[in-house]
């Protein structure tokens, strides 16, 4: 049966003919009272059922029968307008000052929020352009209720992990689908640095100056039309288009600085004098506790040092043991950082003649250069965009959206976190200089690394070039007054070229006499979408909008990698110059997705709304037994404020709406390796398997032909309120349940492998979202608005692949508990008399022990915040505008795995310490300390994993501040300028944290709540000017 339906639909798309009648084609544009396009307005020929809606530019085209000369324009939230038919109509609709006219772009169409039954949030152009990041998607940080963003790296162009209404999978994809101008694009992180904290985001290839709006789709009504790709939500990016009217030219220039953020007082590195004091104290403690059996006594005896156990005596021991310069004072954090520089220039030309048959165009060029505050890390980007639209006849419209970009990134060095400059800055001693007495690089450091040398001209290299082309042509046929056919093609071609070099100036590279690596990745995503859209109004009260469509998508991926070592000289770093081959690997695959979908919307008198969608997806990612799946949604909305019995509330209640939805979405990002059996002809590190010189292959993966999509069922209920034309409130409750989660199921070792993938697990998310926006003052010369968002999310693991939980060193995945639940040995503090560390002995917590191995693991919290949101305010006074945004998070826990090293109390006693250790350490009997007694060689388990390093993740961040001034038009027109604005934008100004927090920025910690030496988010301040001609 389904095959017949597909055949009928396919034939329909191919064999569509034109339907004509005795009509006159009338075109025009609908604007609001401030001259902005009105999107989604209903346009009906009075006295008939013939109607259409305005597009994203406010334009419309409608066939008017002979004898009919009046059009009726209506939209909830706008005053109804009747206008006589004229050539090239220009209609103005007045707003009732509510938020009902906000546009929701779903990717397959455009609708007004008033008619939308789902849950979605829109971020506008002003918010997007005021941000200073190469990755445009970071403009969503703190602006969308229910969207949690983890930005774990301040690297220019680095990705952001986004979770919309929680994490809906454990082992499969967790990121939303991105759609640009109706075409899905790829946002997956690829390349050789993707697991080293130096990822490159493909989204950084888009320029924020080209973005009109970003819409975040959340619930089933909003997302199920995307079927198997929508479990984690959908983010729709709409770019700017040309508008009818005379050509305009806009130029924007930004210049600014990027500084390292203010370091939390607990996390500052100590200077030379404090370092010597702590190191000598550790040595003295070693002797006092262990006496002749201490390691320091052993060295004294063997080498007959005869040094007294005093601060001066142990200082001499310190110098003898390490050969460090006791007079040197290096702040390694200062040495690897600088004042960065940001510059961006944008130029665009847009316009279109007033004739409805004339083309409309938008052409832009943008250049961005960002030198990071960390030495050796920078990004430059060149982007070109051209959007074109034309309707040469009343039947045909066509257009083209294109984006070309080149992004070059320098990441300083490869080798993972251990080669990262921040990591090394927190490992090195202040007593070790950057250069030795002869002026050469000093490698007599804690571990042989010198992070400054690594970033010198002959140091490590890690460079990448991203080339991206996105092309999307379309053709629209207006078959009759109510029926439209749209065909759209999309090509997203992404090419990544990477080069890495481990130089002679670091231990790993020195041992191999340098190691070079080259990698190329080519990813092509092709999409074709065909839709039929039927829009009709019956008897002026029944509004119907039906969309049916077919979509095909093909993904092609190819990777190649080559490495070699043993260079003749250090500066000839190309791989071809190396003598010893290292690794060589190639990898390629193709994925296909074919889909058929239906979406229907109905409303009666703009009061009662119903919507439904259905999608049938087939994907080559899955085995032949489970290749196809269906997804659907139902939504309803009731505008109570339009009822007659609510007439008495009209003076203060502008809108009151209740909406609900339920449906299913899928997750196809389970990896092709789970469905097919894989054999490898090489060992991934060498050039191939062989036995006695005979090549061969080995099994890598069992296949599972029954592996299928993960499915997420989504329920949402919400309320929208508008009061006194001032206050707008939205509240939502949601419940998501993911079933058929993919897990590795253990199998017998006699098979040669230890597991295979199967659909077994279940995970649930539930939460509440709330936003309120108040236009407190709304006068011609003075405006003031305030907005608050808050969201909660609680997740629970419902089912795992086995009856046993998945337990790690400090966290556990267990049925009935939240994801990433922390479970570890619980720290009970410091023994005031001895300075020894204490842990709770049993699960009840009524006994303590100094023996780490006897302590029992306990549940000690989870990283999921109880409350997440933002506070924003905006002032406008005559030509001035000021906008400020605060982000906050309450209730989550952070485990500082880096603190096990930064706050070590022995082992590397000659390394560095933080201010927290210096200020809170135990020194004498009776001290109520937070840090145990310092020791030198003879350490206990105080540095082992326990809740000693567990912290509150609460914070309040001054996320952004934007101040601008529009120069008077009478002043600038003398210079032939139509508009001019000067501005300053600042981001990440300051973060207020819990008093016990030790780190750079709690908002930069990943979803699992584990903190490492994360590249901190920079504080940026840019000054700019925008000119219009």
Q: How are the secondary structure elements laid out?
A:
Blueprint: H1 2-14, E1 23-32, E2 42-45, E3 51-53, E4 59-65, E5 70-74, E6 81-84, E7 89-93, E8 103-105, E9 110-112, E10 120-124, H2 125-129, E11 147-150, E12 161-164, E13 177-180, E14 183-185, E15 211-217, H3 220-223, E16 234-239, E17 245-259, H4 272-290, H5 295-302, H6 311-322, H7 332-335, E18 340-352, E19 360-371, E20 378-390, E21 396-410, H8 421-425, H9 451-454, E22 461-478, E23 483-502, H10 507-511, E24 515-538, E25 542-565, E26 580-604, E27 608-619, E28 628-639, E29 653-667, E30 678-680, E31 689-691, E32 694-696, E33 698-701, E34 710-723, E35 727-746, E36 755-778, E37 782-799, E38 806-807, E39 811-813, E40 821-825, E41 827-830, E42 837-840, E43 848-849, E44 857-861, E45 867-877, E46 880-890, E47 893-896, H11 899-902, H12 915-920, E48 950-952, E49 955-966, H13 969-972, E50 979-993, E51 1010-1011, E52 1019-1028
Parallel strand pairs: 1-7, 13-16, 47-51
Antiparallel strand pairs: 1-4, 2-3, 2-5, 5-6, 8-9, 10-15, 11-12, 13-14, 15-16, 17-18, 17-52, 18-19, 19-20, 20-21, 21-22, 22-23, 23-24, 24-25, 25-26, 26-27, 27-28, 28-29, 29-34, 30-33, 31-32, 34-35, 35-36, 36-37, 37-45, 38-39, 39-40, 40-44, 41-42, 42-43, 45-46, 46-49, 47-48, 49-50, 50-52
Helix pairs in contact: 4-6
Return the average pLDDT rounded to an integer.
Answer: 89
**How many strand elements?**
52
Shape: elongated
The largest pleated sheet is described as: 22 strands, antiparallel, barrel
InterPro entries: Beta-barrel_TonB, Beta-barrel_TonB_sf, CarboxyPept-like_regulatory, Plug_dom, Plug_dom_sf, TonB-dep_OMP_SusC/RagA, TonB-dep_OMP_SusC/RagA_CS, TonB-dep_rcpt-like
Domain TonB-dependent receptor plug: 115-234
GO molecular function, one term: siderophore uptake transmembrane transporter activity
Membrane topology: Multi-pass membrane protein
